Amino acid sequence: MAATTGELLVTVHGATDLQDCEEWGDMDPYVTLAFTSPAAEGAASAATRTSMKGGTNPTWQDETLALPVTADPGQLRVEVWNQNRAAPDDLVGFGQCSIYEALQGGGPSELAVPLTAHPSGKAQGFVHLRLAFRPLPPDQAAAAARAEMAGAGAE
């Protein structure tokens, strides 16, 4: 696994026009985030709190999640789930977005990530995010790189 270079700060504003997968009442959606790179597989992921009775246009009051970034994180995978009490949670939709601009230090990026409905595969809804990158201070980045090299030599 590559050394951590900083954190991707993802502020989840809300979602719009989600597919309603709840038979009774309103959906209770939450968002999960993870990187797509094979190098990042099994690395950190994050989830918002559940927007109880958030329905098809939930908000998360600008909840900010931090994901450690390695040398090659790939894209950001965004999934929206509906929390259920007596059954497994339902995957409402998923999408991916580039994090390149945020990693290049271009300042915060506001995005509307289009979602694909599960299981129909139809396009539906958006998750609204702000991405920003916070690099490690130089001394911490150097220490992380040294620790990574020492770990690679032990394998």
Automatic annotation (TrEMBL):
InterPro entries: C2_dom, C2_domain_sf, Ingression_C2_domain. Coiled coil: none annotated. Residues 1-112 form the C2 domain. It comes from the Eukaryota. CDD domains: C2. It holds the Pfam family C2. This is Elicitor-responsive 1-like isoform X1. It comes from Chlorella sorokiniana (Freshwater green alga).
